[in-house]
Design brief:
Elements (H helix, E strand, L loop, with lengths): L6 H26 L3 E4 L1 H7 L1 H38 L6 H55 L3 E4 L11 E3 L1 H7 L4
Parallel strand pairs: 1-2, 1-3
Helix pairs in contact: 2-5, 3-4, 4-5
Length: 180
């Protein structure tokens, strides 16, 4: 019993196999050159003691200003509360209602102040940290390029499952930034 083979089908199959091999060889070669690094960005940032001290000092100064203003608002609320409670029983209802509205408005103003202060502090922190994060990012990229790393992942990003060797480049990044 002879098996009949379509010559066109056979030629197409051979071409497909050759094309697959031609495409797969570079992938296997590049997989052999794959080099992965990890970096603890938080450790790098914390090692930049001068930069971080400046950020902390500016945040503390701004926070102190907000705390002082908040204390003034609390004093005003206490004053209004004391005035409302000190009203004589025969004080006209309109006066009591006006004092009550003043106290309610002071409470609302205080709550708004706290919300705005927190938002301002968050924005300030982001603004102050942006140049530091940019400097760290550039250092990581430079170390990765110099070391021939194909991929660098954050060390604290979670569990890493990979068969390729992984190199921790945190100390190299710190050294590049002149940090200890």
């Amino acid at each position: 019993m002879a098996i009949l083979v379509n010559k066109d089908y056979s030629d197409k199959m051979i071409k497909k196999i050759l094309l697959f091999v031609a495409l797969a060889i570079p992938m296997f070669v590049s997989a052999q050159n794959f080099k992965m690094g990890i970096v603890d960005t938080n450790a790098v940032i914390q090692s930049l003691t001068t930069d971080m001290k400046n950020v902390e000092d500016k945040l503390a100064a701004t926070s102190k200003e907000y705390e002082d203003n908040y204390a003034k608002l609390q004093q005003e609320m206490k004053r209004l509360y004391d005035e409302l409670n000190a009203l004589a029983p025969d004080t006209p209802t309109a006066t009591k209602e006006r004092k009550s509205r003043e106290l309610t408005q002071a409470q609302t103003n205080t709550q708004n102040f706290l919300r705005d202060a927190q938002s301002d502090m968050d924005k300030l922190q982001q603004e102050l940290m942006a140049p530091i994060l940019d400097k760290v990012k550039k250092a990581i990229e430079a170390v990765a390029k110099e070391g021939g790393f194909s991929l660098v992942q954050e060390a604290n990003a979670g569990i890493l499952y990979d068969a390729a060797p992984v190199v921790n480049i945190t100390d190299q990044v710190k050294a590049r930034l002149g940090a200890k």
